[in-house]
Amino acid sequence: MVIVIIIMSVVTLWSEHSVTTKFRRKKQSMEFSQDTAHSGEIGTKKKVKRLLSFQRYFHVSRLHRGAIPQAPLHFLDEDYLGQARHMLSKVGMWDFDIFLFDRLTNGNTLVPLLCHLFNIHGLIHHFQLDMVTLHRFLVMVQEDYHSQNPYHNAVHAADVTQAMNCFLKEPKLSSFLTPLDIMLGLLSAVTHDLDHPGVNQLFLIKTNHHLCSLYQNISVLENHHWRSAVCLLRESRLFAHLPKEMTQDIEQRLGSLILATDITRQKEFLTRLENHLKNQDLRLEDAQNRHFILQIALKCADICNPCRIWEVSKQWSERVCEEFYRQGDLEQKFKLEISPLCNQQEDSIPSIQIGFMTHIAEPLFKKWYHFTESPLGENMLSHLTTNKAKWKSIQHTQHSSNGGSSGSNSNKINDHAGQGTENEEQTVNEGDSP
């Protein structure tokens, strides 16, 4: 009972210092290069300015313009806290409504969710984690998601984490997982889109963003999410008490998991999974095979929106398309070619969703069900089929009312999913430290 009270009280505890934290935190460099400063140059560290994250760049810009940041209020009455506690008791159920949980916690979704999951999985005890330090780390993670993004925000991260928790409990997988596997699964889920700018890699390349040069146009956003996550882990000192070799291993495996979410590597991972299933050689006693399945699980969690109930799935579909359209408006404003799926006049929500479900979601979740052979996998495919049929019905209605074609995005999505490269995991495989 005490730990439950502690977990839920974090919803309110940090409101009084949330603003000052933004100004006082001394940030490490977000992108760790190969040529870091020598240890003897301690005296000059204060003079070295790190590359600002997208979030902090815009925050500083507002301050320079004289705009005062508005601190969100996170005080809740007991009725809301009681409902949030009740929802956490059902966090392992697939019909968990993350939007309702976000409202009950007044936008403070990540902190109580992850504290609860770390507790029920025994990770706090196993890794001897300090509860205050864990709370501080999760607050930092939540702050570095962009609340102005319609889709890539902290609610999406929480949704992916809740889905990952469900996948970690799959009978085919759960009995083989170590505490480290579980912790990496949850950490990768909660940080997989950290500091996402709300635009895609193509937009960053078009605008000559420095991250594209840093990562040579390879998994640019995914590399950035990984390095940002490592930055927060080190700054919060969450694992400072663990052996150095272990923390380095955690950072590398975390990177491998996050990099797997690059949608352009979809064909690569599907082919590997298909071969494993065909050869029946997935030995989950082997750490490498477990890690591969965790990669697949994270990929599934990341794009599981079509597999949710219609009311929740529809909200996510509208949010992601709104983010696409905002990018298209930016590109049009700056006289750039509008990226695929980002033209609101040509790319309708139903056509985008039908193409995504057909070429991305269905193949992945069919293979996942082949692996799990579980009621959850069957339920997810059932939702996906139902939701796809609803979007087709909406598309037909729109097509009829418009008296013309609503456009098709199937080929755009299919082409994008297959643009993999053999070098995309180089930064991890070669042992680079973030």
From TrEMBL:
<feature type="binding site">
    <location>
        <position position="193"/>
    </location>
    <ligand>
        <name>AMP</name>
    </ligand>
</feature>
<keyword id="KW-0114">cAMP</keyword>
<feature type="compositionally biased region" description="Acidic residues">
    <location>
        <begin position="422"/>
        <end position="434"/>
    </location>
</feature>
<dbReference type="InterPro" id="IPR002073">
    <property type="entry name" value="PDEase_catalytic_dom"/>
</dbReference>
<dbReference type="Pfam" id="PF00233">
    <property type="entry name" value="PDEase_I"/>
</dbReference>
<feature type="binding site">
    <location>
        <position position="302"/>
    </location>
    <ligand>
        <name>Zn(2+) 1</name>
    </ligand>
</feature>
<dbReference type="InterPro" id="IPR023088">
    <property type="entry name" value="PDEase"/>
</dbReference>
<dbReference type="InterPro" id="IPR003607">
    <property type="entry name" value="HD/PDEase_dom"/>
</dbReference>
<dbReference type="InterPro" id="IPR036971">
    <property type="entry name" value="PDEase_catalytic_dom_sf"/>
</dbReference>
<feature type="binding site">
    <location>
        <position position="192"/>
    </location>
    <ligand>
        <name>Zn(2+) 1</name>
    </ligand>
</feature>
<feature type="domain" description="PDEase">
    <location>
        <begin position="76"/>
        <end position="398"/>
    </location>
</feature>
<keyword id="KW-0732">Signal</keyword>
<keyword id="KW-0378">Hydrolase</keyword>
<dbReference type="GO" id="GO:0007165">
    <property type="term" value="P:signal transduction"/>
</dbReference>
<feature type="binding site">
    <location>
        <position position="302"/>
    </location>
    <ligand>
        <name>AMP</name>
    </ligand>
</feature>
<feature type="binding site">
    <location>
        <position position="193"/>
    </location>
    <ligand>
        <name>Zn(2+) 1</name>
    </ligand>
</feature>
<comment type="pathway">
    <text>Purine metabolism; 3',5'-cyclic AMP degradation; AMP from 3',5'-cyclic AMP: step 1/1.</text>
</comment>
<feature type="compositionally biased region" description="Low complexity">
    <location>
        <begin position="400"/>
        <end position="411"/>
    </location>
</feature>
<dbReference type="InterPro" id="IPR023174">
    <property type="entry name" value="PDEase_CS"/>
</dbReference>
<feature type="signal peptide">
    <location>
        <begin position="1"/>
        <end position="15"/>
    </location>
</feature>
<comment type="similarity">
    <text>Belongs to the cyclic nucleotide phosphodiesterase family. PDE7 subfamily.</text>
</comment>
<feature type="binding site">
    <location>
        <position position="156"/>
    </location>
    <ligand>
        <name>Zn(2+) 1</name>
    </ligand>
</feature>
<keyword id="KW-0479">Metal-binding</keyword>
<dbReference type="GO" id="GO:0046872">
    <property type="term" value="F:metal ion binding"/>
</dbReference>
<dbReference type="GO" id="GO:0004115">
    <property type="term" value="F:3',5'-cyclic-AMP phosphodiesterase activity"/>
</dbReference>
<protein>
    <recommendedName>
        <fullName>Phosphodiesterase</fullName>
        <ecNumber>3.1.4.-</ecNumber>
    </recommendedName>
</protein>
<feature type="active site" description="Proton donor">
    <location>
        <position position="152"/>
    </location>
</feature>
<feature type="binding site">
    <location>
        <begin position="152"/>
        <end position="156"/>
    </location>
    <ligand>
        <name>AMP</name>
    </ligand>
</feature>
<feature type="binding site">
    <location>
        <position position="193"/>
    </location>
    <ligand>
        <name>Zn(2+) 2</name>
    </ligand>
</feature>
<feature type="binding site">
    <location>
        <position position="353"/>
    </location>
    <ligand>
        <name>AMP</name>
    </ligand>
</feature>
<feature type="region of interest" description="Disordered">
    <location>
        <begin position="392"/>
        <end position="434"/>
    </location>
</feature>
